[in-house]
Sequence to fold (386 residues):
Amino acid sequence: MHTSELESPLRLRDHWHWLVGGAALLAMLWVLGPILMPFVVGGILAYVGDPVVDWLEERGFSRTWGVVMVFATITLSIALLILMIAPMIHAQTLTLIAAAPEALRWIQDVGMPKIGINVPDNLKIDANYISRWISDHWREATGAAGVVAQSGLAVLATIANIALIPVVAFYLLRDWDRMVESCDRFTPPRWRPLTRRLASECDDVLGSFIRGQGLVMVAMAIYYTVTLSIAGLKLSLVVGLIAGTLTFVPYLGFAVGFAAAMIAVLVQDPSFWPIIWVCIIFGIAQMLEGNVLVPMLVGDKIGIHPVTVIFAIMAGGQLMGFTGVLIALPVAAILAVLFRELNRRWRSSAFYLWGATAAAEPAPEALPPPPSAIALGEGPPLKKDA
Fold:
């Protein structure tokens, strides 16, 4: 009896409390989902910055000073970026709001009839009403004091969450290596080889996606903004940021950005050359992204289908709101690694390979054709018995 107990240490009645504890932890994370946003964003920033801090440690800096240098660089970069583009985004947003009714009128009265779609008058949206509605509510929305007075606690909670992000990221980044080591020690020794291999694969996938795809998004946003601005599009920054941000879903950023740019340029100047320039810009962008940036910065390690990406984002938003959207793609990448491991084990299992030997045996020789076929010249003649 004692030997049997030693050989079967994973009986449910002896370890049920671990399962209950794990389920309780998942339930607690589910309930606390609305307040996890700063911790999730801080964890992502710590994961992205850890290789840079490790590089600084290899060159003689302490871990704390490496974290301080990384955070100082990130803070200055974000501050300069906000100072440079915030006024432009504000101005172009006002232009977009002012041009929205005219764009709607052009789509209904000019664009859709050109492709053979005529909208009945009783189904058309009144662009003048939308213009008046936007004008009235925009003046109300610009009263920041009114907004704060109506929802002061919500504004303070949002500010507190944003302020927590750098604090959480700093401490996570400083103690990242120790946390990884603690997780490794917490893993049972018999599972450590498999866990370390899967963790390495997950790190490759997440690193390729978060760091690589992030650089692709930034590069494409800069490309769209600069080229559309050179082409004379007034909403180049807004369209460029939207198209660049959505490039993490293959072809979605291209499709949405192209549609937005075409509508904007048709409303602004519906002549021949502006339309041609927009088509050329987005054609070059598609080749640049698919043939240069993604192979160079992301590689082929992710292995997540575009439909899976869309489903993961929608499922994360439905389950945990904005926090779920943030963690959807990292969780999908980890699940993809686990699914590949499960697929390898399934293909090497006895159940999968059962009967494979019989199926691999050579097929029997084909029967000779009948005499009638030989007479018509459709097959080799039968061999005569000696």
